[in-house]
């Protein structure tokens, strides 16, 4: 029986998956068949490695697909010799898996020239692509794992030069090269030393702009749930459930799968949701989202790490969330480009917004917890996020009118920071002669509702 997967690569035989056929076809026809080099950069757990695997499956009949990864290979980047020798070993393994002729493999695996290792590697690449009976696609996963980016940049510079020579008819090179990772190649130096001046000169300026959307659309989620429903017969409203899941996640793949996984494995069968029919509802989805938001997940841990590593990223996210600034997205703005690279923000009608509602809540909680530790009196008690709207509720105990006015001022300050017009002040009074009830009034440009109990 298949399940929903949130760890590692997805397998259609084991996991419920969005049908990737149309996207894979577009990538092949737009980028690979024309022989383009490009970078596939998306946030953590965005399905990048799964996409590479699916591409390879489709390409095998026409191309040789060499799939290598730099994960766990930090030692390769200690020197040109280590890098060239490591790449020779990795590619040899892939050539054998692709059943390339033994003559070509023997030629490829000869000892590396220790004096000029990268030049030797370039000559082997020329020979391999000239003599091979099929065009070769090179896929490199986890490109941002390179610990010494100078070696990585030299390797990319060599590939760029061979690409340019190929286009002039003066060399043979891989038909298409795909670099996959979170960091864009031009930001590798930023990854290594975030406190230094960031330079964007890149040896990968030959790359085509990759603009294929890898997030899941409501229709794609719906198709996946149709398959699930055929197996489990929950009676869910598939379209409504799909749209609600999308509303929370904006199609971020691991969040979509995470909600579905919790509905299937954790929520159904509990006291509040005794069966599948009860779980696959708006209430069940809200409960799954709540669990995700309060789970210490690798995706959120990485988010916190990036926020702390890059102060400019932290400031731009706090500005969006707390100040309500209408920021116009500009790809040349360093902070915005960084946030976009991690998929923490998106552009909506040219304006910047946090990528999805789950990220919003996780970031709110993190920033507010920091603020509470700094100064307890500078935060509101309750922030309610419900169906895309936010409600601020300040709770106070009645200690007199002067203290109550301070609460009103404080609430207005919170509203201003979140760019909201209306707020709620819940006051608990233990006076025998208290006046309970609800009243509405304005304070400056803000409308306040005060509820006294």
Task: Provide a descriptive summary of the structure in words.
The chain has 453 residues and is α/β, with parallel strands linked by helices. Helices cover 47% and strands 15% of the residues. It contains 17 helices and eleven strands. It has helices at residues 21-32, 48-59, 80-97, 102-108, 117-131, 149-167, 188-192, 218-232, 238-249, 253-267, 276-279, 282-293, 298-309, 311-323, 334-341, 357-374, 401-417; strands at 37-41, 64-69, 136-141, 176-181, 345-348, 351-354, 382-386, 389-397, 422-428, 437-443, 446-452. Strands 7-8-9-11-10 form a five-stranded mixed β-sheet, with helices on one face. A four-stranded parallel β-sheet has the order 1-4-3-2. Helix 5 packs parallel to helix 6 (149-167) and helix 13 (298-309) crosses helix 14 (311-323). The model is unreliable at 192-200 (pLDDT under 50).
- The percentage helix is 40-55%
Q: Which structural class do you get from the secondary structure elements?
A: alpha/beta
Note the run of SSEs as H and E. Answer: HEHEHHHEHEHHHHHHHHHEEHEEHEEE
Indicate the proportion of strand residues: 5-15%
* Principal-axes shape call: elongated
Give Rg in angstroms: 27 Å
State the helix count: 17
List the uncertain runs. 192-200
- The strand line-up of the biggest sheet is 7-8-9-11-10
Question: What does the largest sheet look like?
Answer: 5 strands, mixed
Distance between the termini: 53 Å
Return the average pLDDT rounded to an integer.
87
Number of strands: 11
